Amino acid sequence: MNAQFNRLQRPATTMPSEVEALCPPPHLLPGESIDRYHAVQAAIFQDINPQTAIEWLLAADIAELSWEMQRYRLLRHRLLDAYRQKAIQTALRRIDVVGIAPDFQDLAEIYTVKNALDWQLDPSAAHEIEARLHSHGFDQHALNSEVYVQARDDLSLFETLLNGAQLRRLLLLKEINNMRRHQRA
Fold it and tell me: How many CA atoms lie within 13 A of 57 on its CB side?
């Protein structure tokens, strides 16, 4: 099973059926594209150009890890978008709720949450809110800082996931290289 498969000179981009039977189908999340997954997989297969069943299995794992890394990056970006609304809300609270009588702070807080939601959903409201925030010293850099402060724990989770996937991917690539060196020797 570890013998070389007959291939044309061009590297293969699809897994041989003999090996494909050993790999489970990808588990994609809602909104993910099987065509994009196969494109990533084909590019990896073409770069690695697996020749044996073991190399094909390792290449499939590398493709899966590469897909996971893309997924983590996309989710991290979505997370930052979600925290941006919270950063807007925090900045609005600093300028709108300060100095309000204690009896009206709960109501002011409700309006602050509503304004932050309007910022997210209504482009004209977003422009007005950002101009108001800017007039109080909250520029994009200040808002970005607030986003990262609020998201720091979640960002460290994604950093850990990305680093783990990258390390596993590098180890698999190293394994393929070691196998090829051993076969040449």
Answer: 13
